[in-house]
Structures are given as structure tokens and as C-alpha cells.
Design goal:
Layout (H helix, E strand, L loop, with lengths): L1 H19 L24 H12 L3 E5 L2 H15 L4 E2 L3 H10 L15 E4 L3 E3 L4 E5 L13 E7 L3 E2 L2 H12 L7 E4 L4 E2 L7 E2 L6 E7 L6
Parallel strand pairs: 1-11, 2-3, 3-6, 4-7, 6-11
Antiparallel strand pairs: 4-5, 5-8, 9-10
Length: 218
């Protein structure tokens, strides 16, 4: 015990000396603000970067030239998969589905019957292929519980970096930030079970992003 106490005292003495006699850092001019990632040469490549990274994460990317194209492709997908229990709780998304005649459930009950959820998002992060969702705009349950999650987004929501996505939230909500902020990076997956990749372990097994091009091109 005496030896342990002595060793402890030696360590604390060195810590006190280090705090009192501070040495000047050898690397005083470190740039902690500049982006360490290589930037795409052109802005239009941001969409390609997002699509590639989303697909690498086992997500599915559907490019739509406009809202009508989005609806057509969504109807084809629903008919191919024979999905009937489609849940949508956001007004903007409900208007889009109503105009197209796509039936959906807007009641908050019977969540255990949901097959597919349709939501919007706050932003799309190209660098990581992630979709930024929050409790202000999206239901917590519909981004986690259903086996299939479909996000309908716009090309104007694309940003390159995570910090740009967070800035979108700050600009939109100011000090009243959402209580839940989440980055959805493809379908839920884990490799903890016998070191085998399992899709849908803790959330949706399939994740779709329908991206509507709303940016004017020269």
C-alpha cells in the first residue's frame, strides 16, 4: 500500500508541475477550421456523391425529374412490391400522395401494421450519403419502426458536409432546435451477431430516397 501511495504522489506531482510550468506548443498554427476533404470540382457532382455513398450503404436512390415523375415511380414500386399498409403523417407528403391517388394511413394508431413509411427530411448529406431527419418535421416512429422507409426529398436540400446540414437546422429553427436529430445512413444493419452483417436489425430493412430535381439548370 505504501508503494502505491508513493507512486500516486509522484504522478500527481508531475501533473501539478505540468499545470504550473506550461510549455509552448510546438504546433501553434494548426488550422482546425479548413475542410480536410477534397471538394468535388463542380456543384452538380454533389448529387452524384450523395447517390454513390447512399448506394454503398445499401440504400436505394431514385432520381426524379419532377413531382409527377416521382409519383409515377413511387406507384410502380408500390405495385411491384404489393405494399398496402403505407403510413404518412406529414401534411406536405400527404398532399403529394392525395393528388396522385396513392392510399395511405394517417392515423397514429396501429403502427405495428405498417409496411412502409413515407417521410420528408431536413437535408441530404452528400459526404456520408446520409439523410438528416428531426422530430420537428418527421415522426420518430416512422423513421425507425417500419420495415421500409421511403424519403421524398429535393435536390435543393443537398449539402456536402455534416456541418452544413446542422447549419440548415440552425437557420430554420434558431434556438428552438428539435429534440431529436438523426442521420439515417441506409437501412439498419449490424455485424455484432456472429460477425455476420444483418440488415434491418434495429430499424428498416430497406431505405429509399426519391430525389426530385427542383434546381433550375442553365
Amino acid at each position: 500500500m505504501e508503494q502505491l501511495t508513493t507512486s500516486k504522489e509522484k504522478i500527481l506531482k508531475k501533473v501539478r508541475q505540468a499545470l504550473i510550468f506550461k510549455q509552448k506548443t510546438k504546433f501553434a498554427n494548426i488550422d482546425l477550421d479548413s475542410n480536410v476533404y477534397v471538394q468535388p470540382p463542380q456543384e452538380e457532382l454533389v448529387m452524384e456523391t450523395f447517390a454513390k455513398n447512399l448506394i454503398d450503404l445499401k440504400g436505394q436512390f431514385v432520381f426524379c425529374t419532377n413531382k409527377f415523375d416521382c409519383i409515377d415511380k413511387l406507384i410502380i414500386l408500390l405495385e411491384q412490391r404489393k405494399w398496402k399498409q403505407l403510413f404518412c403523417w406529414e401534411e406536405d407528403m400527404q398532399f403529394l400522395l392525395k393528388d396522385s391517388g396513392i392510399p395511405f394511413i394517417d392515423r397514429k394508431g396501429n403502427i405495428e401494421k405498417v409496411q412502409v413509411s413515407v417521410t420528408s427530411c431536413e437535408a441530404l448529406i452528400a459526404r456520408t450519403g446520409s439523410v438528416l431527419v428531426s422530430s420537428k418535421k418527421n415522426s420518430r416512429a416512422l423513421t425507425i419502426f417500419p420495415p421500409v422507409h421511403i424519403v421524398i426529398a429535393y435536390s435543393s436540400q443537398l449539402v456536402m458536409e455534416l456541418k452544413e446540414g446542422l447549419q440548415v437546422l440552425k437557420n430554420r429553427y434558431g434556438k428552438n432546435l428539435p429534440s431529436m436529430i438523426s442521420f439515417v445512413s441506409g437501412p439498419s444493419r449490424t455485424s455484432d451477431i456472429e460477425k455476420t452483417l444483418v440488415i434491418g436489425a434495429h430499424g428498416p430493412k430497406e431505405f429509399f430516397v426519391f430525389l426530385i430535381d427542383d434546381v433550375k439548370h442553365d
